[in-house]
């Protein structure tokens, strides 16, 4: 990959912030100063600083300049499918809200895509629940569950009770749960995800997928897909087998 002047300037300023040479609240060098320092055009310096703004690292004040942002608080989070997100937040005494943004049957494409992992045939419908996780008043994750309707035949009527799918499973007598077939990857957000998570296109999302099983019956209850804002979480993977 070619290291352009824009990339060079952005990386150098970011490194200064990471090393503590520029502290939260400090004013950044001007576009002209950065252009002179790195023998670049002013537009290269401007674009580099705009990218840092989109990444949430700096902010601009019109007519004054750009300043280093205070770092966002990070959340300790153990990735596992056997404890509810809300309980993990309560353990850390973190203000938390779960908002259901979709509770209905999955699309035809999603039904086809998740049928194999849920071990279902074409005669079984898959119910989809999407929740927006809000921590410290900041939208930080989109939590999606694809659930077998044959195991929870009243789920459509009970969709108002799905802020916590984990608690919904417990209420149905499914308490001995395990998480299998975990996948972790990164992607950049879509327009809809940027809107929901209030982030820019340059904030990567950490995408975690897993299956939740009932240990007593060895039935796959749901496929979980969680999209986390990577700038807000410190993650650990569970060593559960």
Describe it:
With 241 residues, the chain is α+β, with helices and mostly antiparallel strands. It contains seven helices and ten strands. It has helices spanning 5-18, 31-37, 42-54, 85-91, 108-114, 165-171, 191-197; strands at 58-61, 65-68, 75-79, 96-105, 126-135, 138-148, 177-187, 205-214, 219-229, 233-237. The strands form three sheets. A six-stranded antiparallel sheet has the order 4-5-6-9-8-7, sandwiched between helices. A two-stranded antiparallel ribbon has the order 1-2. It has a two-stranded parallel ribbon with strand order 3-10. Helix 1 packs across helix 3 (42-54) and helix 2 (31-37) crosses helix 3. The longest helix is centred in the first third of the chain and has 14 residues, at 5-18. The radius of gyration is 22 Å and the shape is elongated. The chain starts with a helix and ends with a strand.
Highlighted features:
elongated; two-stranded antiparallel sheet; alpha+beta; disordered C terminus; six-stranded antiparallel sheet; 10 strands; 7 helices; 241 residues; single chain
* H/I helix tally: 7
Looking across the biggest beta sheet, what order are the strands in?
4-5-6-9-8-7
Q: Calculate the mean pLDDT score and round it.
A: 87
Distance between the termini: 40 Å
For the secondary structure, the number of strands is 10
Structural class: alpha+beta
Strand content: 25-35%
Output the helix-strand order.
HHHEEEHEHEEHEHEEE
Shape: elongated
Largest sheet composition? 6 strands, antiparallel
Helix fraction, binned, reads 25-40%
């Amino acid at each position: 990959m070619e290291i352009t002047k824009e990339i060079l300037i952005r990386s150098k300023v970011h490194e200064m912030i990471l090393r503590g040479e520029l502290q939260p609240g400090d004013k950044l060098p001007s576009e002209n100063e950065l252009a002179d320092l790195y023998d670049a055009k002013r537009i290269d310096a401007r674009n580099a600083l705009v990218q840092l703004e989109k990444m949430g690292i700096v902010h601009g004040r019109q007519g004054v300049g750009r300043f280093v942002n205070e770092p966002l608080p990070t959340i300790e989070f153990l990735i596992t499918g056997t404890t509810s997100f809300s309980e993990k937040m309560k353990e850390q005494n973190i203000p938390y809200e779960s908002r259901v943004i979709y509770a209905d049957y999955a699309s035809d494409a999603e039904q086809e895509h998740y049928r194999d992992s849920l071990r279902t045939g074409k005669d079984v419908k898959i119910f989809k629940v999407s929740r927006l996780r809000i921590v410290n008043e900041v939208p930080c994750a989109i939590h999606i569950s694809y659930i077998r309707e044959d195991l929870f035949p009243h789920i459509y009527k009970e969709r108002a009770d799905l802020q916590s799918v984990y608690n919904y499973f417990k209420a149905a007598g499914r308490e001995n749960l395990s998480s299998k077939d975990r996948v972790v990857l990164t992607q950049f957000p879509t327009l809809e995800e940027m809107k929901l998570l209030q982030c820019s296109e340059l904030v990567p999302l950490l995408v975690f997928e897993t299956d939740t099983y009932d240990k007593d019956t060895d039935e796959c209850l749901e496929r979980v897909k969680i999209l986390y804002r990577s700038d807000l979480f410190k993650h650990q993977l569970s060593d559960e087998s």
